[in-house]
Amino acid sequence: MSVQYQAIGWNRQKRIYDGTLVGSVALYLALFVGIGSWLHPNATAETLLIRGFGTAAILLLHVILSIGPLCRLNRRFLPLLYNRRHLGVTTFLLALVHGVFSIVQFHSLGDVNPLVSLFVSNPRYASFVQFPFQSLGFFALVILFLMAATSHDFWLHNLTAAVWKRLHMFVYLAYALLVAHVTLGALQSERSLLLAATLAAGLGTVVALHLAAARREHRTDETAPVKALDGFVDVCDANAIPEKQAAVVCVGGERVAVFRYDGKISAVSNVCRHQNGPLGEGRIVDGCITCPWHGYQYKPETGAAPPPFTEKVETFPVRIRNGRVQIHPRANAPGTFVEPARLEGAVMRTYDAQFR
Length: 356
Ligand code: HEM
Ligand code: FES
Hints:
Layout: H1 12-39, H2 45-73, H3 78-82, H4 84-107, H5 114-120, H6 133-149, H7 153-159, H8 161-168, H9 171-188, H10 194-222, E1 226-227, E2 233-237, E3 245-251, E4 254-261, E5 264-269, E6 283-285, E7 288-290, E8 297-298, E9 315-316, E10 318-321, E11 324-327, E12 341-342, H11 345-355
Antiparallel strand pairs: 1-2, 2-11, 3-4, 4-5, 5-9, 5-12, 6-7, 7-8, 10-11
Helix pairs in contact: 1-2, 2-4, 2-10, 4-5, 4-6, 6-9, 7-8, 9-10
Protoporphyrin IX containing FE binds near residues 50, 57, 138 and 195.
């Protein structure tokens, strides 16, 4: 099986995103080197560059790790998520410059291969305080490389979404390695512990945001729906769903997005085929459910993307009883047509009074 390669489609939003990214990184590096050489006039340019690129990379990694939970907590952060992969590639490039400069500076002057020297010049692997922290940075860099190299959608389709997602979860291992790399590095230098303290604050923020987002999702999953005799479960009041938006409910352990549009209700899996984005946080645009992360679209009745696209998500049988939406927990195969439930009479009138 082969997958067709498609070049990146640049649009205005991507240009603004990348322009802001490059400008911010350049500004950070200029400020770091400028202020650093003013505060430490004896520091060499190489040292300032190693530290500038290293801190820029880890700072950006914190931004990347925070974007996911921030978007779950507040939709206003969604534009940041749109091009998150460019942040990942930039992080890798910054870290690469830092790693290469460090190897050239500290490991290339002897008669041992610099890459070998990286692992053997300090053999105190059994010590905590003296641990060769550079090796941890190396392994983190390898992970960042793998993620950057496979970030294009070509790899997403080729590897399958599940494998791709699992591979990209290694970002948390890379982060753990880097926390150790920087903390142990700071312990071994005579410099102030400001860096380690800043890192601790960053780690605390990342953990707190993940916990807050997980708690919020857990609350959605916790509400146990009432089951009818024929297997349908009562999930929500039809009036509670705003027009062209969805309520996300948990049915049979699966998150389902229940969309309301043009007097109809349809239910599809909440998980986007692209990168598992939360479809239920998207809207109906031009008659299609539109994923809030990168805009993949699906017809609400079939869960299938409009041609020429081929992505499909599962659909769920849906009906309305006494103004309440009921869903059958047995998912249909992705792309299966399900007759939408119709909002009629009293339900529509109550809805009109509430939302229009
Ligand atoms: C081959 C891989 C790597 C090597 C050889 C390496 C080497 C080093 C060395 C020698 C230092 C101490 C620099 C100094 O005290 O002046 C350092 C610090 C640091 N490294 Fe790495 N590193 C690697 C990968 C990474 C990666 C992948 C990141 C982040 C994404 C990273 C982030 C940092 C940070 C934030 C510091 C502290 C900066 C500072 O000292 O001000 N390193 N690294
Ligand atoms: S996750 Fe990318 S479009 Fe849905």
